[in-house]
C-alpha cells in the first residue's frame, strides 16, 4: 500500500503526518522549538535545531506506519523565513521568521527608490518587515561578511529538500511569493528586484508549481529515516495555502479560517487580483496550491494570543483548578462568558496589527467599561474584537468583488463550541467544522499523492476532506450595527497617537 506524508514546518514547531490512499491518517509526530529574541523586534529560529527536529518527526511518523511505504512526501512551510548557508551547507546565521521587524526602518527608502506601485504589481504584496526582501536587505547592511559568504539562501521548504539530498532544491510558487523577490505573473525571480538588492539569482532555489516533483530522498538518508527506496519529494509551498487546500478550499467563495495564535483567512481566486481596494488595505495576491489559482491572505497577528494573555493575567484560579481535576482551563474561562453579546468594544491590537493596516506601533483598547462590567463580559468583548477584525478583512474582499460565503475552520479555535458560535455570529458567515487535525500536513500530503498518482488534487480533496458540522450565524443585526462603530475605532485612536 502506498502512503503519503505531509510535513509542516511552522514557527513554533514541526509536524509529520502519514495518510493512506483514502486520506485516513495512519501516524503523526510533532516537535516544538523556541523563537529566539535577542533584541526587541527580533525573532529567530535555530536552523539546525529546526531541521534536526524535522528529521525526527519524519523518522518517527514513518516508523509508526504499520503497513505500506511512503511513496511521496510534500512540504508545507512557514513563509518569509530564510537561512543563509555556506558551500558545504552549514548555516551562517539563524533564520529570521515572520514576526522579526528589525528591517522596518529600511523599507521606506528602498521602496521609494524602487517604486511602491511597481513592487506591488510584480510581487502582489505591499512592503512590510515580515517579507524576506527587507530581511535580506538588513543582513546585507548589518552582516556584510555573512552576506558575502552566503552560497545559497533557502527558505525552510527548499532547505529541508536540500538536507534530504537534493543538490538543487525547488520552492513552491506560493512560498516564493512570500519572499517579495518573485514575479507572481511570470512565475520567476524578478531580475530588477534582485539587482536593486544586489542578490545573485543563482543563490535562490528554482520556483515550481505546487504539487511538482522536486526529486527523490537520497537513498542513504531515506534508510536513516525509515522511508522507501524511492520516496518522491513534492513541492508544497506556503503553509497558509497548503492549509487552505487541506481544508478543502478548491473554488472561489470558500476560504480557510485558521484560528489559533494568529487568526488567518486564506481564500482562492481563478485569476490574479490587483485592485486598488486590496492594495491600499495590504491584501496580497500570490499563487495558490492549485494550478491556475491565486490566493490572498488576511490576518490578525493578535488572534488567539489575546485569549492566552487573558488566561495568563486573569485566569490563575482556573488554571490551578483545571490542573487538579484534569480539565481545560480555557474552556472554564469561555464558559464564564454571557450568552448575550457584549456591550463593550475592543480594538484587538495587543500586538502589531496584520491586515488591513500593517501598523507595527498600534495599541489595543477596551471601550465602554463601567463598574457593572464582569470578567466574563470582558473576555467575550476581547474575542468579539478579534472576530470583528476578520469581518473587517472579509468586508474589504467583498467590496473587491470576492465575497466569501463559507469559512472552513481549522486550528485550535475549533475545539470550543462556544468560541465557534461567537466567531460565526460576529462575522456573519457560515462556518464549517472539519474532521482535520493538521490541515497543513493534509494539504502537503494531498499534493504528494497528486504528484505520485497523476490524479487531480481537487478530486483527492473531495475524497479526503470530511465536513463535520456547519454553524449558521445568529444575532447578525446586532453585530452588524456594532461593526459600524468598530470600523471607526482604529482611525479615532490612531489620531490620538497614544
Describe this structure in words.
By secondary structure, the chain is of the alpha+beta class. The chain folds into 2 domains: about 250 residues, ATPase, nucleotide binding domain (Nucleotidyltransferase, domain 5), CATH 3.30.420.40; about 200 residues, ATPase, nucleotide binding domain (Nucleotidyltransferase, domain 5), CATH 3.30.420.40. The strands form 7 sheets. A 7-stranded mixed β-sheet has the order 17-18-16-15-21-22-23, with helices on both faces. A hairpin with a 4-residue loop joins strand 10 and strand 11. The longest helix has 25 residues. The N and C termini lie far apart (about 60 Å).
Write out key terms for the chains shown.
alpha+beta, six-stranded mixed beta sheet, Nucleotidyltransferase, domain 5, 2 domains, 40% helix, 23 strands, globular, 19 helices, seven-stranded mixed beta sheet, 21% strand, 498 residues
Which secondary structure elements does this structure contain, and how are they paired or packed?
Elements lengths: L1 E8 L3 E7 L5 E8 L11 E2 L1 H17 L5 E9 L5 E3 L9 E2 L7 H11 L1 H8 L8 H11 L1 H6 L2 E3 L1 H8 L6 E3 H5 L4 E2 L4 E2 L1 H7 L8 E3 L4 E4 L2 H6 L7 E7 H8 L7 E6 L3 E7 L6 H5 L5 E2 L6 E7 L4 H10 L1 H10 L3 H6 L10 E3 L17 E3 L7 H25 L6 E5 L6 H11 L3 E4 L4 H15 L3 H8 L2 E5 L4 H21 L2
Parallel strand pairs: 1-5, 5-14, 9-12, 15-21, 21-22
Antiparallel strand pairs: 1-2, 2-3, 4-7, 6-8, 10-11, 13-14, 15-16, 16-18, 17-18, 19-20, 22-23
Amino acid at each position: 500500500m502506498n502512503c503519503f506524508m505531509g510535513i509542516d514546518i511552522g514557527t513554533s514547531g514541526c509536524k509529520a503526518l502519514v495518510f493512506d490512499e483514502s486520506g485516513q491518517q495512519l501516524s503523526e509526530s510533532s516537535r516544538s522549538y523556541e523563537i529566539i529574541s535577542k533584541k526587541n523586534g527580533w525573532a529567530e529560529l535555530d536552523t539546525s535545531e529546526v531541521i534536526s527536529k524535522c528529521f525526527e518527526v519524519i523518522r518517527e511518523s514513518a516508523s509508526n506506519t504499520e503497513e505500506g511505504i511512503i511513496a511521496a512526501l510534500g512540504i508545507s512551510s512557514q513563509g518569509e523565513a530564510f537561512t543563509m548557508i555556506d558551500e558545504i551547507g552549514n548555516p551562517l546565521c539563524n533564520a529570521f521568521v515572520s514576526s522579526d521587524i528589525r528591517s522596518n526602518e529600511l523599507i521606506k527608502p528602498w521602496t521609494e527608490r524602487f517604486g511602491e506601485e511597481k513592487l506591488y504589481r510584480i510581487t502582489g504584496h505591499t512592503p512590510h518587515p515580515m517579507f524576506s526582501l527587507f530581511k535580506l536587505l538588513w543582513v546585507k547592511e548589518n552582516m556584510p561578511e555573512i552576506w558575502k559568504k552566503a552560497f545559497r539562501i533557502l527558505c525552510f521548504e527548499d532547505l529541508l529538500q536540500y538536507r534530504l539530498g537534493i543538490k538543487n532544491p525547488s520552492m513552491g510558487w506560493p512560498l516564493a511569493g512570500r519572499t517579495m523577490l518573485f514575479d507572481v505573473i511570470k512565475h520567476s525571480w524578478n531580475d530588477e528586484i534582485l539587482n536593486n538588492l544586489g542578490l545573485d539569482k543563482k543563490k535562490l532555489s528554482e520556483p515550481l508549481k505546487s504539487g511538482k516533483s522536486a526529486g527523490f530522498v537520497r537513498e542513504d538518508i531515506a534508510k536513516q529515516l525509515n522511508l522507501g527506496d524511492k520516496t518522491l519529494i513534492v513541492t508544497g509551498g506556503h503553509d497558509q495555502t497548503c492549509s487552505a487546500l487541506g481544508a478543502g478550499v478548491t473554488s472561489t467563495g470558500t476560504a480557510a479560517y485558521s484560528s489559533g495564535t494568529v487568526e488567518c483567512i486564506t481564500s482562492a481566486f481563478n485569476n490574479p487580483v490587483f485592485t486598488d481596494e486590496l492594495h491600499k488595505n495590504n491584501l496580497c495576491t500570490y499563487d495558490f496550491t492549485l494550478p491556475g489559482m491565486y490566493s490572498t491572505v488576511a490576518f490578525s497577528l493578535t488572534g488567539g494570543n489575546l485569549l492566552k494573555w487573558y488566561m495568563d493575567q486573569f485566569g490563575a484560579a482556573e488554571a490551578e483548578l483545571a490542573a487538579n481535576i484534569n480539565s481545560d482551563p480555557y474552556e472554564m474561562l469561555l464558559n464564564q462568558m454571557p450568552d448575550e453579546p457584549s456591550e463593550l468594544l475592543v480594538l484587538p491590537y495587543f500586538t502589531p496589527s496584520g491586515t488591513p493596516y500593517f501598523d507595527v506601533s498600534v495599541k489595543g483598547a477596551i471601550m465602554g467599561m463601567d463598574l457593572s462590567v464582569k470578567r466574563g463580559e470582558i473576555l467575550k468583548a476581547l474575542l468579539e474584537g478579534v472576530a470583528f477584525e476578520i469581518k473587517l478583512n472579509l468586508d474589504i474582499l467583498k467590496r473587491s468583488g470576492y465575497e466569501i460565503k463559507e469559512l472552513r475552520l481549522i486550528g485550535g479555535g475549533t475545539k470550543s463550541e462556544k468560541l465557534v458560535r461567537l466567531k460565526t455570529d460576529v462575522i456573519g458567515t457560515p462556518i464549517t467544522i472539519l474532521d482535520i487535525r493538521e490541515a497543513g500536513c493534509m494539504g502537503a500530503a494531498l499534493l504528494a499523492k497528486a504528484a505520485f498518482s497523476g490524479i487531480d488534487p481537487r478530486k483527492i480533496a473531495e475524497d479526503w476532506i470530511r465536513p463535520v458540522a456547519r454553524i449558521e450565524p445568529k444575532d447578525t443585526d446586532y453585530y452588524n450595527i456594532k461593526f459600524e462603530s468598530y470600523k471607526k475605532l482604529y482611525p479615532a485612536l490612531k489620531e490620538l497617537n497614544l
